Amino acid sequence: MEEYYFTNPKYEIKHIQLNGAKDILLRGLRYYIGEKAQWLQKYEDIAEWLTDNHCKGLFLSGDNGLGKTVICTKVIPAIFKYYLKFGFFYYDAIRLSECYKNAIDNYNLIVSREPIIIDDIGVESIGDNFGEKHDYFSEIVDDAEKRGRLLIITSNLTIDELTERYGRRTVDRLKAITHAIAIKGESLRGG
Fold first, then answer.
1. Is the bond leading into 115 cis (omega within 30 degrees of zero)?
2. CATH class of the structural domain 55-183
3. Would you kindly state where each structural domain of the chain is located, as residue ranges?
C-alpha cells in the first residue's frame, strides 16, 4: 500500500460539520467500489460523525471486508479534500512501524504531521531502537491527545484485543479522542 497525502499547510480544523453526509458517503463508496457498493447499517454512524464529529477523530474496528479501509483511506480523505478543503497524511500500520524501526528521525517527522490516518493497527511489530522497545502506536495516541490532533484509525482487532496489545491507558486515550464504531458481519468482498 502506498503512502499518499493531501496537504493543508495550516491545519486548524478539528470540528467537522458536513451537511448531507450520508448521501456524500454513499456516493464516495460507489465511486471507489462501484455500483455493487452496499450500505451497511453501521455506515449511518460514520455519516453521523461526518455530520458533526464533536472535535473527535474516528476509530473503525471490526471484521474483515466491511469497507473500513476504503472508507478511511479513500472516501473520507476525498470528502475532506473536496468539501472541507483539507486533507490527511495516510500510513498503513506496518509501513509506519518500519519507519520507526529504520529511522527515528523520519518517524518523528511523520507523527508531527496533522491530521493522520493509520490503517490496520494491530498488525505491526513493536519498534526496537537499539534494544529499547517502543510501542509507536501508543506514542501517537499520547501525542494526539496532547496536541488535539485529529486521528482516523482502522483495525480488525476488538477493543479487548487492543487493550491486551497496547494497554488500558492507550485504549482509554484512544476512546477519549475518537468516535469508535465497530462494524460486524460477513465480508463484502465476495471471494
1. yes
2. alpha beta
3. 55-183
State how far Cα 155 lies from the chain centre. 8
What DSSP string describes 84-117? IS---EEEEHHHHHHHHHH-HHHHHHHHTSSSEE
Return d(Cα 191, Cα 179) in angstroms, integer: 30
Per-residue pLDDT of the chain (191 residues; tens, 9 = 90+): 333 333 333 335 577 888 899 999 999 999 999 988 999 999 999 999 999 999 899 999 999 999 999 999 999 999 988 887 777 777 787 777 666 666 555 555 565 656 788 899 988 766 555 555 667 788 888 888 887 888 999 999 999 999 999 999 999 999 999 999 999 999 888 75
Q: Which of 3, 8, 4 is nearest to 115 (CA)?
A: 8
Say which residues have a Cβ less than 8 Å from residue 163's Cβ, sequence separation at least 6: 171
Cell of 30: 460507489
Give the global pTM.
0.83
503512502: which residue's cell? 3
Q: Which three cell numbers stand for residue 71?
A: 472508507
Query: Do 183 and 42 form a contact (C-beta atoms < 8 A)?
Result: yes
